[in-house]
Amino acid sequence: MLSRLTRPQALAVCAVPAVALLATAVFAPLPFSVAQPGLTADVLGENKGTQVITVSGAKTRETTGQLRMTTIEATSPDTRVSLPDVLGAWFGTDQAVMPRDSVYPTGDNLEEIERYNEEQMRASQEEATSAALGYLDLDGKGIEVDLKLADVGGPSAGLLFSLGIVDKLNGDDSGGDLTGGRIIAGTGTIDAEGRVGAVGGVPLKTQAARRDGATVFLVPEAECAEARAELPDGLRLIPVTTLQGTVDALVALEKGAGKVPSC
C-alpha cells in the first residue's frame, strides 16, 4: 500500500539526496593543481652553495647585477584539491588554479614526474648552452659549460641560462654587463637556434620576481597580455622572442640608447 506524502514531506525527502550530492561535490577531488609564486635563483651566482654556471676552456668575466630565473610551486600530484581549495585560489591574488595535466603531463607517479622534469631540465640546459655558444660564434671551440640548479625541473629556465652564459663570457660586448647592475628576472624556454618559447604560470612568476627585488622581467612575447594583467608595481616587462633580441633589448636598456620593447 502506498501513501501520499505531503508537500513539506516530499521536499524534505528530495532535499536529502540534494544535500548529499552537494557535500560530495564540495569535498570530491578535482583535476586541478593550486600554484603559487616559487623560488627564484640568480644564474650568475650560487644556488644552495653551488655555482649555477661554470665555464671551462674560456676566460670568464666578473659580473654585477643578477639574472634570476623564476618558478612556481604547485600542489603535488597526489594532493586532493577540492572545490573550497579551487575557490580560495580563484579569488586570491597570490595563487592560481591550473589544470593538473598542464602541471604534471606525465601521470600520477611521483617518481615518473620527477624523472620527466629532470630530463626536461637537462635538455633545456643543453639547448641553452648551444644557443649561447652559437650566438657568440664559439661553437666547437672546446668550451664546456656546466649548469647546476638544485630542486628545479622543467625547461622554463632556458632563456636565463643562455643569458647567464653570454654575460659571463662576453657581457654587453663592450666591457659592461647585460644587467647594467640591475636585478633582472624572467622566464622562457629556448632552443639551440635561440628561439624563445612560452611557458606557464607567468603572473605568479612576476610576483616571485618582484618579491625578490627584480625591476625588469623578460617574458615570452606570446604571454605579454597574461603577464600585464596582474603585473606587480615596480616591475617592467620586456617581451622577447629570440636570444639575439633579448640581448639587444638588455644592451639598449643598460646604455639608455635604442628602443627597448614593451608589452
- Output the structural class: alpha/beta
| Uncertain regions spanning at least 5 consecutive residues | 1-28
The third-level CATH topology of the domain at 37-72 and 110-255 is Ribosomal Protein S5, domain 2
Please describe the biggest sheet, giving its number of strands, its sense, and whether it closes into a barrel. 6 strands, mixed
- Number of distinct beta strands: 12
Radius of gyration: 24 Å
Task: Give the strand order of the largest sheet, numbering strands 1, 2, ... along the chain.
Answer: 6-1-5-8-11-12
Helix content range of the residues, please? Answer: 25-40%
> Per DSSP, what share of the residues sits in E-state strands of 2 or more residues?
15-25%
Envelope shape: globular
Terminal Cα span: 74 Å
Order of helices and strands: HEEEEEHEHHEHEEEHEHEH
| The top level CATH class name of the domain at 37-72 and 110-255 | Alpha Beta
Taking all residues together, what is the mean pLDDT?
Answer: 85
What is the correct CATH architecture of the domain at 37-72 and 110-255?
A: 2-Layer Sandwich
Give me the number of helical elements.
8
